[in-house]
Automatic annotation (TrEMBL):
<feature type="transmembrane region" description="Helical">
    <location>
        <begin position="221"/>
        <end position="237"/>
    </location>
</feature>
<feature type="transmembrane region" description="Helical">
    <location>
        <begin position="189"/>
        <end position="209"/>
    </location>
</feature>
<protein>
    <recommendedName>
        <fullName>DUF4184 family protein</fullName>
    </recommendedName>
</protein>
<dbReference type="InterPro" id="IPR025238">
    <property type="entry name" value="DUF4184"/>
</dbReference>
<keyword id="KW-0812">Transmembrane</keyword>
<keyword id="KW-0472">Membrane</keyword>
<feature type="transmembrane region" description="Helical">
    <location>
        <begin position="57"/>
        <end position="80"/>
    </location>
</feature>
<feature type="transmembrane region" description="Helical">
    <location>
        <begin position="148"/>
        <end position="169"/>
    </location>
</feature>
<dbReference type="Pfam" id="PF13803">
    <property type="entry name" value="DUF4184"/>
</dbReference>
<feature type="transmembrane region" description="Helical">
    <location>
        <begin position="101"/>
        <end position="119"/>
    </location>
</feature>
<keyword id="KW-1133">Transmembrane helix</keyword>
């Protein structure tokens, strides 16, 4: 399957690059992962496929809006503690103070998830693939054409995403769109230590749980773990952030 991260983001990052003011970049990216995030709860997931048009409304939209809010308000401020270097990760802390209009966030969330579902329709058994016999016929490489499309689009998507991320870093586009990030509050070692420790612990739990060796399940669990690690680090340094907020209001 095209990788939940970083392949699927190739469908939405160029939109943000082309029209930065028209889209909520956080909602676009989270939405492009949302249909796969339910895999984290296998084998206990009771609600059926999250890769259908109807699932855009009952799963992808609410999950994307919730996660985008959590990431923007609790996780992204901690980006100020990350290494600067080539990817300019600290710049992403500026996204924490951005508030888009509600319809921009909702439309970006739906669009991101829709690109994921549409992409998978042509690269997975079932869906559109079941209607096009050519896609299930064997290719010269010994696998069905839809599988070949799966592998090729996954590699291509990963390369496109990498190019977009490097372009954002090289041109400092986050700063251009949203201004400079706020200075980090508190002890960076405290934030990093908490984030890394919680993230590593949850990553190990993800492997130990049933179906933890399946790549799509493990990827989804690690994405949830990353968000929770960021939230834990923010909670650990909450007093530092509260102090910074009080000073900024004076």
């Amino acid at each position: 399957m095209p990788a939940t991260v970083p392949a699927h983001q190739a469908a939405v990052l160029p939109l943000k690059l082309a029209w930065p003011s028209r889209f909520d970049g956080v909602a676009l990216v989270v939405g492009s992962t949302a249909p796969d995030l339910a895999y984290a709860f296998l084998p206990w997931w009771p609600f059926g496929s999250t890769h259908t048009p109807l699932a855009l409304l009952w799963w992808a939209l609410p999950v994307t809006v919730l996660l985008s809010t959590v990431i923007r308000r609790l996780v992204l401020p901690g980006a100020a503690h990350l290494p600067l270097r080539r990817l300019r990760l600290r710049d992403y802390a500026a996204c924490a103070r951005v508030r888009h209009r509600w319809w921009t966030t909702l439309s970006s969330a739906l669009l991101g998830a829709a690109t994921h579902i549409a992409w998978d329709q042509f690269t997975h058994a079932g869906g559109v693939v079941s209607w096009l016999p050519t896609l299930v016929s064997p290719s010269p490489f010994g696998v069905p054409w839809y599988k070949l499309a799966q592998y090729a689009s996954g590699v291509t998507g990963t390369l496109v995403t990498a190019w977009c991320v490097m372009l954002i870093a090289k041109q400092r586009l986050i700063r251009r769109w949203h201004g400079p990030a706020e200075p980090p509050a508190g002890d960076p070692a405290k934030w990093r230590g908490t984030a890394y420790a919680v993230g590593a612990g949850l990553a190990l739990v993800a492997v130990a749980l049933p179906q933890g060796t399946l790549p799509h399940v493990l990827t989804a669990r690690w994405l949830w773990a990353g968000v929770l690690a960021g939230v834990a680090a923010r909670w650990r340094t909450r007093r530092d952030w509260a102090s910074l907020t009080r000073r900024s209001r004076r």
